[in-house]
Structure formats: structure tokens, C-alpha cells
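In this section we walk through a basic example: taking a raw amino acid sequence and producing a predicted 3D structure, encoded as C-alpha cells. The instruction is simple. Fold the sequence below.
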Amino acid sequence: MTSQCTLSAAHHNAQIKAKYFTSVAQYYRALADSAAGKHGDALVRFTVAETAAKEANRSASSFSGVFVTQMSPSLPADAGSAILDLTKAHLALCTDKKNEAQRENDLIYNAVLPAAEALPQIDKATVATPVTIQEVYATPEVQKVIGPDMFVRLIPLSVHESASVYSEEKAKLVRAEVEKADNAEAEVKSALESLGVKQGLVRFKAIAEGGVGGEEEVPLEVRRWREDIAVMEEREGVERLMAQLTKLKDAVKSELDGISRELETESRECEAMRVKYEHLWTQEPSGSLTKSSRQELKSHLGSLDAAAQSDQQVVALWDSVKGEIRLLLSPQVEEVFRASTDGPDAGSESLLDLDVTNDTQNEEERTQIAQLVDEIEERLGRLNKIAHERNQVLKDLKEKVSNLDPLALMRVVFTNNRFKRTMYRTSCS
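The resulting C-alpha cell sequence is shown next.
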């Protein structure tokens, strides 16, 4: 409701101003026509101005009577009375001028009065003619007068948009190169770990130096198995877990059997009471009341049997590997591993299978291992050097990209172009 009142007040105020300004325009154009000797046109315009002034005053009177500040908070409190006084004073002025022009035309000029619609339109008046600064000052002095150009550092929006696109392309380039470097580093690391180069290098270096024999070293993977199994066995052994499982299974079986017996006992007692008391025994048959319980009991017994079969498979699996697990955890694992490597089926000759215990070939094979170790270390060093150089190149790329400001570059280009255009205009003038 408040918004509607505000809108109505604003509309009414706009109508009053439209009539008032129309009257003012016609009044001053009438003064100009009178001064130019167009007394007929002046009289008609004074009449039109008076008519518009009357309408404006009439509307202002109604507006002033109902105006309150709440109708339009943007207007001052005395807006109604002020516009009424303004239109009233202007109406009096128009009436006086119209009466004066009427008397002069009747007594002196006797000019023909044209129709109001035939009067020419009021054109815009040119109140001033612009004068360029070059007409006042010489070209070399213009810069001294106006001072430095305040818009010299202003860059168009299109340049900003191009700079944004350029910055995004720089970021894409950096991200792509960093991703390639990370992928290469991950591939190298994965390959070295899968081959066990670092762990094997320590062992073979010790062999080359005569510290250990190749057959005395248990593989790192086997040692990890042993450590993991030892931790799990210490925390909660398999035998102990299986014993707990058997105990829980027996308890559940006993509980379900007890429930089954209680259901059968209750059913027999119900039927015995029904035979004993005949029609006086009104309880429903126990079988219908405990049907759902019997079905759930059957389902649980079936699940228990399936779990027992699965447990048997687990027990069989444990029995098949129990001996190997115990052997792996025993102190004799080193001896067992040496015996396996000394057998006739130890495998084909390789770096891992070089026999360094043979006195006749001991020195020669250790020398061969040392050469291989040196070659591996040299290649690992080359890989590390490549990784270092790659990281340095990425660092330099990031620094150069971050230090390159496209807006500064475009600002220099834009300033140079403006300077060239200014010099060209100066030379032409």
C-alpha cells in the first residue's frame, strides 16, 4: 500500500511539473516573439502559457491538500505548499502579460492571431559555442597548459581481457610441464622400487667388499613377511583365534538347541492341556503362534552350518601352511634359505646367484659384482642429475612466467602508439 501511494504521488508531481514547464517555455518564447515584432504569435503563446499555468495550479492545489511526507519520502515536507506557490505566482505573471498583450494588440498592432496548433515548435537554444583549446593556444603550448595526460595509464577493457587469457595460457603451460615432470618422477621411482635396485645395491656392494656371501642373505621380501607375521602372531595368534571361533560356534549351537527344545516343550504342554480340558482350553495352538520363530530358528541353524563348513576350509588352509609359517618364524630360516640356494635347482646364473664362496673364482666374481655395482650407481647418479636439472628448469620457468606482466608490456606498447600518433598530428599541423 505504501509503495502504491509513493508511486501515485510521484506521478502527480510529474504531471504538475510537465504543465508548469510547458507554460514557462511558452511564456519566454512569447517574450521573444514580442521583442521580434510578432505580436500575434506572442499573444497566442501568452494565452497557451496561461492555460497551462492554470492546469498546473489546479493540479498543485489538489496535490497540496492531500500531500503528506509518507506518500513520498524523497520529497521535502513543504513540497506541496512550495509547488502550489510556484504555480500560483507563475499563473499571475502569465495572466498579466496576456492581458497586456491583448490591450496592445487591440489598440495598436491589430495583428492577426494564428491558431495555437499553427505556431512553430520551440527549438533548442544554443547558449554557447564550443571553442577548442588549439584555437586559444599554439600546439606546443597545449601540453604545458593542460598538464600530463591523466589517462596515460588507462588500458581498454579488451586489453584486460586479452591479458586474462594470456595469464591463463601461462598457467596452463606451467601446469602441463609440472604434470609431465611429476609423471616422469613417479615412473622412475616405481621402476626402481619394482626392481628392488636400492635394496639390492646395498647387498651386492657388501658382497663386492667381501662383507657377506650371496647365499647368506635372506631376501628383503622374505624378511618383511617374517616381520609382519610375527607382529600379527604376537598381537593375536591364529591358533588362539581359531580356538575362540570354535568356542563361540559351540555357544551359539547350544543356544539355538536350547531354544528349539523350549519351543517343542511348549507345544507339547499346549496340546496336553487341550486334551485335558477339552473345550475349556481356549488358547490357540502353539504351532501357529510360534511359526515365525521356528522359521527364524531354522534360518539361523542353516547359517551356522554354512559357517561351520567355511571354518573347516579355513582350518584346512591353516593346516596346509602352518608348517611353513612356523618355519618362517623360527631362527633356522637362514639355514633353510642357504640350503635352498645350494641345491641343484637353485636357478640359472645371474647377479643374485653368483657364487662368491668358491675360492678359485672368488676374486673374479667379486670384481664382476663391483663393476656391475659401479655401473648401477653411475646410472642412478645420472637419473638424480636429470631429476635435479628438471626441477631447476621448472623453477626457472615459474620465475620467468611470474615476472612477466602482460599489462605492463601492453601499457608500454599502448603508450608508444599514443606518442607516435601525437607526434604525427604535431608534424602534420
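Looking at the output, two observations stand out. Residues 327 and 333 are 6 Å apart (CA to CA). DSSP finds 13 helices and no strands in the chain. In the next section we compare this with other chains.
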